[in-house]
Amino acid sequence: MSGRSLLLVAQLAPPLQITAAQRVAGLVKFLGRLGLEVAVLTSAVSGEGPVEGASRVARTRDLLASPLNWRRGQLEALAGGGAGYSDRSPVERIIVPDVALASWLPFALPRALAMGARHRFDCVLTTSPPQSTHLIGLALRRRGLPWIAELRDGWTFDPPRAPWPTGLQRRIDEGLERRVARGASALVGVTRPITEDLARRFGGRAETVTNAFDPDERPTEELAAGLVGTDRFSLVHTGRMSVVGRDARPLLAAIARLRAEKPRLGERFELVLAGAVTNAEEAALRVCAPDGILRLLGAVDRPRALALQRTADALIVLAHGVSIRSVATGKLFEYLAAGRPILVLGDETEAARIVAETGTGFAVPASDVDAIAAALCRLERGVNLPVRDDVAVARYAYPAVASRLAELVEEVVHAP
């Protein structure tokens, strides 16, 4: 694999400190260590500077970086620059398949074609969301370049968004997905349900290459000083909650029930949310949270978030939403590295399967307040907790994940 040249195309990349950019960071870093020459094409909205492991980084214009961008405040909040952000813009309900088709693709596509003409890459990897990123891969594939299309969320399958409002939009979206899926040399899904759906509907090569954690990231716990109560049992959720249907209220209801039925136990719990929340989410959470239960930290920088995960008594995955089967949030893999017990709210999700496989936690139905309350008792008492399988956990670290992706690159390069 040493000496292979790969063009990785992603709208969001380092130094932006959000989960979507962390996959790019991990893949580029460890693919580089395997000897691949990785060039990154990304958006100026991600910031400036090099990406560790990349041979070169091209950052194009993006209307999301414009002062006129209606989502600029949201992006700053997600990256740690604010405590709250508004709900989705109405424009996101209009442009198919996503806003990046208008904001970034007009700048990224010409740059990709120019890069491909100057440097004969062995392969291109496009990673979404946004799904319109794959149209760059489609264009380069037409020029003879082997192409891997990677989906970190489902497209028309199990999408983490509300359905399109019109039939015409749905048909356009389905048509774009079909062209991408049938045009790519290989398809990658970051969860098994996504991969299985791609293989079932479109045939061809489809592989699962999961999200992962970077074993080099080892923040000191002092960074989390003061973020959790020293005399409380701290349930911690880091990252954004604002995915359609994702809701912490059943968890708050379970804590409230324990307070009513088992006051001494129930009063020990606190729920710590470290991440941007919408204005509507904050209002709803504060209404239903009993006094003293809820800590809303807002967006925190990545080192502090990782340190917070390591000081938690238990880590919470809110996996239930419109995306049910395929949910395995990016934060889950950071949780695997943190070494704290994980409670997944969503027992039929991919996140539930992964914590069971690795022995890092357990899952309960997302809306079953009784089951959640029983799970909290189990966690607080430390009763019948799974035994961590370090070998299984290591399969979800970026060295292993990058190695699987590098093998796939080699296969598509050699494919007839």
What does this structure look like?
The chain is α/β, with parallel strands linked by helices and 416 residues long. It folds into two domains: 5-212 and 397-414, Glycogen Phosphorylase B (Rossmann fold); 221-389, Glycogen Phosphorylase B (Rossmann fold, 3-Layer(aba) Sandwich). It is built from 16 helices and 15 strands. It has helices spanning 19-33, 72-81, 100-103, 105-118, 134-141, 167-183, 192-202, 249-261, 263-266, 279-288, 302-311, 330-338, 350-358, 369-381, 390-394, 398-414, and strands spanning 5-9, 37-43, 54-60, 84-85, 123-128, 147-151, 186-189, 206-208, 233-238, 269-274, 277-278, 294-298, 314-318, 342-345, 361-364. The strands form three sheets. It has a seven-stranded parallel beta sheet with strand order 3-2-1-5-6-7-8. It has a six-stranded parallel beta sheet with strand order 12-10-9-13-14-15, with helices on both faces. The two termini are 18 Å apart. The model is unreliable at 80-86 (pLDDT under 50).
Per-chain topology:
Elements: E1 5-9, H1 19-33, E2 37-43, E3 54-60, H2 72-81, E4 84-85, H3 100-103, H4 105-118, E5 123-128, H5 134-141, E6 147-151, H6 167-183, E7 186-189, H7 192-202, E8 206-208, E9 233-238, H8 249-261, H9 263-266, E10 269-274, E11 277-278, H10 279-288, E12 294-298, H11 302-311, E13 314-318, H12 330-338, E14 342-345, H13 350-358, E15 361-364, H14 369-381, H15 390-394, H16 398-414
Parallel strand pairs: 1-2, 1-5, 2-3, 4-11, 5-6, 6-7, 7-8, 9-10, 9-13, 10-12, 13-14, 14-15
Helix pairs in contact: 1-16, 4-5, 5-6, 8-14
